[in-house]
Amino acid sequence: MKLEGRAWVFGDGISTDQITPGRYFHLRSNLKELAKHVLEDAREDFAMGVRPGDIVVGGWNFGQGSSREHAPTVIKLAGVQAVVARSVARIFYRNCINIGLPVVMCDTSGIREGDTLSIDLEAGILKDVTRGFEVPFPPLPAVMTRILREGGLVAHVRKYGDFSLED
Amino acid sequence: MGQTLAEKLISWHAGRPVKAGDFVLARVDWMLMQDGTGPLTVRQFQALRKDALALPERTHVFLDHAAPSPRRELSNDHVFLREFCRATGAVLHEVGEGVCHQIMAERYISPGDLMVGADSHTCTGGGFCAFSTGMGSTDIAVAMALGKTWFLVPESIRVILRGKMMPGVTAKDIILSLIGSLGADGANYRALEFGGEGVASLGMESRLTVANMAVEAGAKCGLFPSDDATRAYLETLGRGASFRAITPDEEADFGQEVEIDLGALAPQVACPHAVDNVFPVDGKEVRGLEIQQVVIGTCTNGRVSDFRQAAEILRGRHRHPCTRLLVVPASRRVLRVLMSEGLLDIFLAAEATLVTPGCGPCVGVHAGALGDGERCLSTQNRNFKGRMGNPRGEIYLASPLTAAASAVAGKIVDPREYL
Q: pTM of the predicted model, to two decimals?
């Protein structure tokens, strides 16, 4: 799986409260509306400016906090094709995979706003095309690659009627 | 080879001995969702096209985050969840019963159980020595359909508690101090396991406070051994028969060890906008900061012992005229004890406002959203930007003792001066 897109750069510790603030709690059954406020408390210009195919770039512990799957879901609904961060909080990471949103953990410190990034998920290489450097990353655990490749956990369970994750 | 608590609890549910790093499918004993995550969980469950819940009587649905509902969209979510419960046999917990984690603790979860919940603070159950962890809606939907989930068995960090806390210092201070030293992702993907002779001095409600915040260090769960304190608490809840003693094996392999000297601990405060931004209450970073709202309660510190501590300070005192004081019992059962023990009278005499048992203002939906530039000191578990309904508000986290003393003073003060 190879992806290419434009980087939006965020700082460390972006929480699910910043991605999907509690004051929009009432929009959780209206994800399209909720997506209009995606990451609003981290950057006010993001929701208006994001274009399909863009890539969200974070620092340490991206997605920390609540289990709300609405957070990665509205990032995906906004057209973002991958999340790249120095580290990703556990529940958010699992949620990304479950909904079929590619997520990569690697050193993001050299990436600047607007850079073109290309990501090869199988090879484990992120390339900053604008700046001409490459960063390797460890591939996803096998279980997660499988879920992601099948389009998420709902699609997986619908296909097999059960988990089919063990080789 | 010995096993950690995490390895032991998952082994029992995987039907084979497992070790850290293994991929497993594990049977689940309990599943929960709440009104914030529930509607999406139900929709994902429906998308799976399974006819029925695997374990309807073990699938629990809570109306606690927006309860009573402040607006029609949320009322409609409540209607949707009620209808789901009626149609499938899932167990509904209505508005006013309390926070999901507290109800599971009071009525259901027992040592040795495995619980998954669509709420990150599901880790609270670790206080009972249950493997209990938060997940997203899709994971919970699949667990509801199949009665099982997958795990990568976590490595465990052993947290050794030494000595005994001084007066004025409580469980919240232990966990804030630990998060401050580990960092907000210091235990990411791993389990925290509490041990050492200091554990015996912690009652169950203290353990629930500590376990509740394990996720704030990134941990998958925060586990306590099951011992005499566990047995005693289950007995007071009328569930003594569900007790079983559980300890990690002597030769268990812990990836990392951390020690906390309880006797040296001061009251702690976490500053905006990160739970690991922690300072002692008498430090210059926090001492004397004016506070407009104090919250005592929530799933972190809304239990009877928390309110007994707050009442020690509030008895015969008033809140500061410029500081609102909100009291949020974690459950209706807790509220009844506050009434029967006369604690509610003490709070009302101090001019506190009683909020419906549940999540209260912690999630920023209702019951105490902050104004621009306002500062709140809360016993809740998170202080992220925007958490309490306003990104221009500031949230400080502390114990019920620190919160009560600060409500009286109108600013952050050291509770030890008020005991």
A: 0.97
Task: Give domain limits for chain A.
Answer: 2-139
Residues of chain B neighbouring A153 (CB-CB closer than 8 A): 138-139, 142
Q: Where in the sequence is the domain holding B12, given as residue range(s)?
A: 5-261
The tokens describing A95, both together, are 């949620």
Mutate to test the interface with B, among A90, A98, A156 (most CBs of B within 10 A): A90
ipTM: 0.97
Who among A25, A98, A165 is closest to B136 (CB)?
A: A98
Q: Is B258 on the interface with A (CB under 8 A)?
A: no
Phi-psi region of A61 (alpha: psi -120 to 50; beta: other; left: phi over 0): left
Tell whether B34 and B164 lie within a shared domain: yes
Which residues in chain A are contacts of B384 at CB distance < 8 A? 15, 17-18, 64-65
Q: Do A163 and B387 touch (CB under 8 A)?
A: no
As to burial, measured by CB atoms within 10 angstroms (0-12 exposed, 13-18 middle, 19+ buried), residue B1 is exposed
Strands A116-120 and A2-9: antiparallel
As a whole number of angstroms, the distance between CA B385 and CA B250 comes to 42
Exposed (0-12), middle (13-18) or buried (19+): which is A113, by Cβ within 10 Å?
exposed
Model confidence band, residue A21 (pLDDT cutoffs 50, 70, 90) = very high
B311 and B207 assigned to the same domain: no
Q: Is B189 on the interface with A (CB under 8 A)?
A: yes
Count CB-CB contacts under 10 A for residue A20.
32
Residues B254 and B282 placed together within one structural domain of the fold: no
Proportion of chain B above pLDDT 70, given as a percent: 100
CATH number at residue B235: 3.30.499.10
| CATH-assigned architecture of domain A2-139 | Alpha-Beta Barrel (3.20)
Task: Tell me, yes or no, if B388 comes closer than 8 A to chain A by beta carbon.
Answer: yes
A21 touching chain B per CB within 8 A: yes
B165 and B283 assigned to the same domain: no
Among B261, B276, B292, the domain-final residue is B261
Give the pLDDT confidence of B346-369 residue by residue, as tens digits.
Answer: 999 999 999 999 999 999 999 999
